[in-house]
Amino acid sequence: MKIATFILLVCLINSSYGIYTFSFNITIPPLSSWIPSLSSIPYLNSISSISGSSDSSAPAEPSERSESAIPPLSFVISNPDLTSVTIDLRSIQMRAEAFYKKISQTILEDATLSVPELVAKHGYPCETHTVVTPDGYILTMHRIPRGKTSHFKKRPVVFLQHGVLASSADWLISEPEKALGYILADAGYDVWLANNKYSKNHTSLSPDDGKFWNFSWHDIALYDTTTMIDYALSYARQEKLFYIGHSQGTTVSYVMCSEIPEYNRKIKAMFSLAPVAYMTDINSPILQFIARGQGQLGSVLKAIGAHEFLPHNRVLGIVGNVLCRDESITQILCTNSLFAVAGYSDKQMNTTLLPIIMRHTPAGSATKQFLHYAQGINSGEFRKWDYGSSGNVEHYGNDTPPKYQLEKVTTPVYLFYSKSDWLSGEKDVARLYMELKNVKGAFLIADDTFNHLDYLFGIQAPELVY
After folding, report:
1. Has residue 107 been placed in a domain?
2. Does 51 participate in catalysis according to the annotation?
3. In terms of residue numbers, what domain contains 9?
4. pTM score, two decimals?
5. Which of 238, 275, 324, 415 could serve as 334's disulfide partner, Cβ 3.0–4.6 Å?
6. Does the pLDDT value for residue 24 go beyond 70?
């Protein structure tokens, strides 16, 4: 009921931003000396920079839309001391629509591309690497070895670990000037992207087997992330790297460095975007629902064989192209589905990117990952998987799961958090800050509307975060 109320409320809020096409005559003083030509008027679009400058692509020619399709609306402001000047907003609107159509086609094109294809389209080199974890999972990593220029001789390695339900695509969906993966490559880094969606293989298990999905972010930290880091360092012939994690990507970094302290020596610095460890201050109705029914929900999902949560589905990507594109009346449903999880952030939401986002997200995860977070919400602690009293005694020698020893995370850590993040609350970040022993800074994003996903797709992410 709360979720439905929230979505209805946001729909009502957004309905006030409806776009109406009209033309009118307005009488103003002679301003021919400074009125710009029509061709020089900037077109506002959802992928422009924050300063309002338009995309580098030139506006396309007007579409062949009949005037009768545009509701006529006109009025005149009269004043005997002023000279009448007619401004044809219909013409401006039609040219803007043609420009939007051109942008929309590019977005829909990008929504059909894989990560290597998307990177190549933007003119960057992309490599695909495969590693095998100690427990048999075959993981795929993507690497952008350099930017569009190769004048940097020694390029430090930076490792990007995405969040739950995500993939390497999340760092690359925005245009190159705004996507962190490209920004780092152009800045002289050797960029390695961890993966989820491209890693559903195992040496002996099938994704159709429930045993394949018997892992949480604890296992991702101990096996997946360590294996990928070791491979990247070995391949690049370097001893240390920079680690950038988002959401669950931060969780696994804390688990990894606390459980296997030697990895502190392999990380020069750790940058935690929307850090997640403690989860007592979350506002997402979706996560709250999962937490309240964690015990029963886990049993039901196991009984029906739902071991994967929100798996990647090609059909969902196709539906996203139709329902989430610009000018679609159902686009608001797409934005609100993201807001219901991450927090309301209409200011930062680049709706034009929605078809690409829906093409790559959700990328699927093990149901156990979400249930482990739900356990943390209910217990108020950052600790290992709870098997129940008897199971805990068997696994840990105690009837309660052990807490992760955050004081063992000794690598320099930088925390980035925001007020409108429904998954990484300020109180939880403050508690994390107190327990980590080498925090070099905790930075509150200078926008009260910035949410959990804006670190990846937010219009102002480069200015506010990167």
Report:
1. no
2. no
3. 2-102
4. 0.76
5. 324
6. no
